[in-house]
């Protein structure tokens, strides 16, 4: 397999120039956080030095211009995922987006109703639903997964009692992609809402919420090279129908001593001053990666993952989990704790993730405590794959 | 090169001292770090006010297992009062290397289990 370098110049990512322990940083923990291109830093710098004000409030140019930019950010995000601007709510992070959906849908789940998730879920798409069914005296059902990460008993779990189906789009551990279009159809056929955790898909592939036909979708900015900001997509008619879950400034129309009325969507879900710098950084990041090409990025990252898996075959105690369709690869060196692997790689300037990846239920399903996870972004190279393999050989040397 | 994985640490990891459970014991505690999956069970047989014998079992990363092994070697024969005076730093010093912030919990897992075994609480 021959893998060319996708980016002509990875120096557009300032952090990648850093030396770690005297070695050039090899950053392969992109599923946790992706590094920012310079244009993101510049956009945020411009905001802090020339645009800083509050939005939606000031009757003066600085605030009015910034409000326009902030609302334009919403449009850029909407266009990026095939939504309408009024369907985009800015949040703190993807976890908050999912919590908000769970709170919004609380009254839709009645006594003994069911919420269905999968064994693949990140804790952020599991724990909020656990808490929801506790409050509503309902049941949480988990769809089992096969060893390749595909869903095993979907049709058994999702039925007419299911009120919400919430799944990841791409597994943050195994890297496989779930058939979200099919899942939406199954959910809707059963009268359930379909919620998608797209934290691992939006930064790495082209997605379209209308084509997917999900009801809600969440992702975060820092996984696409922006700072910490979250996005919640919700279908227009649902956002209109459902009640806000946080209250205060910006989200009200009229306030009386004892009662208040809400403003229009999406603002009724954005109480308080929003993270404007995050939104502007996110716009710069989306424009940057969109220009590189999301389809190209998806293919390239998966190619690097496959190259890495191929080279792992030369390491006899390496075992790979799942069947990745993205840039994510989970593996272990049998007999060595993932944290020891990560620590020794760090000495080589290589950053990978080790542990349970906020997916303890999936770890238990596989009967393991954790895995090492390498996750590639478009700026990683085939040379770096070789460096990681050499690092792993070194780990084995240390523990031989 | 700075490395946690010095020979003596790997030696304790591969050949842990006082490894295994005691036939008789007075104090026992099991502790785990669910985030890492590290587990330690520690048992103490008292001899008067001294630690007469100590044994442990566990699994996890090299740092948690090696530091517990070193700790057991160090505390055998010490009085309970002496052990009470020991600090986290004393235990980390046993490793003889700089422990990064993310690994301190690993390095102290056996120590926390020992204190809970001896005193019922983490002093």
How would you sum up this structure, described in words?
The complex is a heterodimer of chains A (400) and B (123). With 400 residues, chain A is of the alpha/beta class. Chain A folds into 2 domains: 252 residues, Type I PLP-dependent aspartate aminotransferase-like (Major domain) (Aspartate Aminotransferase, domain 2), CATH 3.40.640; 107 residues, Alpha-Beta Complex (Aspartate Aminotransferase, domain 1). In chain A, 38% of the residues lie in helices and 17% in strands. In chain A, strands 4-10-9-8-7-5-6 form a 7-stranded mixed beta sheet, with helices on both faces. Chain A has a 4-stranded antiparallel beta sheet with strand order 13-14-17-16, with helices on one face. In chain A, helix 1 runs antiparallel to helix 9, helix 2 packs across helix 9 and helix 11 packs across helix 13. In chain A, 50% of the residues are buried. The mean pLDDT of chain A is 96. Chain B is α+β, with helices and mostly antiparallel strands. Chain B has a single domain, classed as Sufe protein. Chain: A. Helix content of chain B is 42%, strand content 22%. Chain B has a 3-stranded antiparallel beta sheet, covered by helices on one side. In chain B, a hairpin with a 2-residue loop joins strand 2 and strand 3. In chain B, helix 2 packs across helix 4. The longest helix of chain B has 16 residues. The radius of gyration of chain B is 13 Å and the shape is globular. The N and C termini of chain B lie far apart (35 Å). The relative contact order of chain B is 0.22. Classes of the chains: A alpha/beta (400), B alpha+beta (123). The interface between A and B is medium-sized, with 15 and 18 residues.
